[in-house]
Amino acid sequence: MDKQDYKIHIVGAGVSGLIAATVLEQNGFSPIILEATERAGGRVKTDIINGYQLDQGFQVLLTAYPAAQKYLNFKSLELQRFLPGAAIFKNKKQHIIGDPLRDISLIFSTLFANIGTVSDKLKILQLNTKLKNKSLSEIFATKEQSTLAYLKNFGFSADMIRDFFKPFFGGIFLEDQLETSSRMFEFVYKMFGEGDAAVPKGGMEEIPKQLVRQLQNTSIQYNTAVTSINEKEILLANGTKLESDFTIVATEPSQLIRNLKNQATEWRSCDTLYFETDNRKINKKLIGLLPETNSLINNIFYLTSLETKLSGAKELLSVTVVNNQRLSGKALVEQIQKELKEFCGISGTLIKHYSLHKSLPKLSQLQYEVPPSETRLTETIYLAGDLQLNGSLNAAMLSGENAALGVLENLEGLFK
């Protein structure tokens, strides 16, 4: 049996599934991807509305991600890079802090910002040094505690945690109490310190689009929903049964595989709203943070501060809400507009509201990666997706790679 004759199916055309297909192709196989929606990308998608590029949820690519460096062509993505810092709206004033060692323009605003103490700023330098010298494998082998406990134990003041760490990392972890594992905090902090936060010029969906373009011998079947997966068989929603020599599940597996029914993934949700505004209140390429107690808004960002392929007539502002306090629809929008006006002096017209119920998997005992053999669920079924590791784009890529390598290990003896 030749390599091309093997029927290797990948369920899900998100980043993880696309990387799995890439690795299989590189080793001479021709996989088939089954995707339930009309396009690839999974949770990484961009819509065009009123001439603006709207990512489905405010997302960034961290250029220091090792897997991203391995599988993506950064130059062709035309990455637009953020400055390493934040604009913090506190007491109706804007305070800019950042890493002056990486961008000298931030030195005076950081030194004189009324955010944290001198001790806090020295501790940030200590934290930078500590994590620069700590490998990724060491980070994910360290005993877990909450990020909040980690920051307190490191000696940061309550004000610094409230004004910077909670809104900044709360927006990344999509939870406002910093309950997320300290392993994830150290990993993300290290990645921010060693590279840039960036968005492709055409929006985040340019990442899966690039991965799709790089595939030569993979067929992708869109609008093809899978109902269940069994050994060597896949049942589609339309009743079709597919024979499958190997199946890589690059989506949440608990709904598809019988013996995983009681292991459903918990998810963190968020709301992302896009507003059109007449002008920009943050003049630099910085994320805006709102540390006000009980405010809905976690962070804001002017997408038009970056160069984009498409742009509407005015400024485009994204607003991220990690705890909507049970508000929805019109009531949520009106409260956000009120907060924007009161705390930031911003008036805007709503363009689009994304209510994202499955934004990030809620995980514990986080891992950086697992051996390919550990992706194997049964003789012919393998698991991929960031929910297998740590809930990041890097994890999505590594899990897809490792699941594909698991299949290759299984076949290794047949092609020597």
Task: Name the descriptors.
five-stranded parallel sheet, 20 strands, Polyamine Oxidase, Chain A, domain 2, 416 residues, alpha/beta, globular, FAD/NAD(P)-binding domain, seven-stranded mixed sheet
List the helices and strands and how they pair.
Blueprint: E1 8-11, H1 15-26, E2 32-34, E3 46-49, E4 52-55, E5 61-62, H2 66-71, H3 74-77, E6 79-81, E7 85-90, E8 93-98, H4 107-112, H5 118-132, H6 136-139, H7 147-154, H8 158-173, H9 182-194, E9 197-200, H10 206-214, E10 219-221, E11 226-230, E12 233-236, E13 241-243, E14 246-249, E15 266-277, E16 287-289, E17 299-302, E18 315-321, H11 329-344, E19 349-362, E20 381-383, H12 393-411
Helix pairs in contact: 1-10, 1-12, 7-9
Average pLDDT, to the nearest integer? 94
Return the domain count: 2
As a whole number of angstroms, the C-alpha radius of gyration is 22 Å
Number of strands: 20
**Approximately how much beta-strand content do the residues carry?**
15-25%
First CA to last CA: what distance? 13 Å
Shape: globular
